[in-house]
Structure to design on (197 residues):
């Protein structure tokens, strides 16, 4: 099934195509159409078919340009565009809330939609060696304008913050399937950054 066929609304083909074009922009290294497809796949793995979560997946990195507040700008896009398609404003607000959660990946306890989306977004951390290496290279490409020492320091801070979480994943399925492997990958990447600095 193509990504276009996975659009969760009955209508809105123009918006879907705008989002696909944004995700497919040439300057993206990791946050691209493949990432969108993988997040949708992981939501399916989690058994999540809530249209608000699926829409949040479509919007969560729709704006990704290396500038501050990309998640916020993605959320505002959802808030502005979805009501024009007949989406209930409360549902559009929920989509935007979910998008904002992907900045820190820390949903509140008892937030199953937030837990599903943030777990699906972070599931790449549990990828096999080859895919994880592609992910790391893709992230580095998106920050090609940042000098290596600065990138390494910033990336190490991100990885350390993730590793400090009690759990990376909030759903039972996510913890069971992805937690151990993700922690191994993060620790290995952090050690590699330390060796290079």
């Amino acid at each position: 099934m193509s990504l276009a066929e996975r659009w969760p609304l009955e209508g809105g083909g123009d918006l879907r195509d705008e989002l696909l074009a944004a995700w497919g922009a040439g300057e993206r290294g990791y946050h691209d159409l493949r990432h969108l497809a993988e997040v949708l796949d992981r939501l399916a793995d989690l058994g999540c078919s809530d249209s608000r979560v699926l829409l949040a997946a479509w919007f969560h990195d729709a704006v990704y340009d290396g500038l501050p507040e990309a998640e916020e700008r993605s959320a505002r896009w959802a808030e502005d565009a979805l009501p024009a398609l007949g989406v209930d404003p409360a549902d559009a607000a929920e989509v935007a809330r979910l998008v904002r959660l992907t900045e820190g990946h820390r949903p509140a306890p008892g937030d199953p939609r937030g837990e599903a989306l943030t777990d699906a977004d972070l599931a790449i951390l549990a990828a096999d060696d080859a895919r994880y290496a592609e992910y790391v290279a893709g992230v580095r490409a998106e920050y090609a304008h940042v000098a290596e020492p600065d990138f390494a320091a910033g990336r190490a801070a991100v990885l350390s913050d993730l590793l400090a979480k009690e759990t990376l994943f909030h759903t039972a399925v996510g913890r069971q399937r992805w937690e151990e492997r993700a922690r191994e990958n993060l620790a290995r990447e952090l050690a590699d950054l330390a060796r290079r600095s």
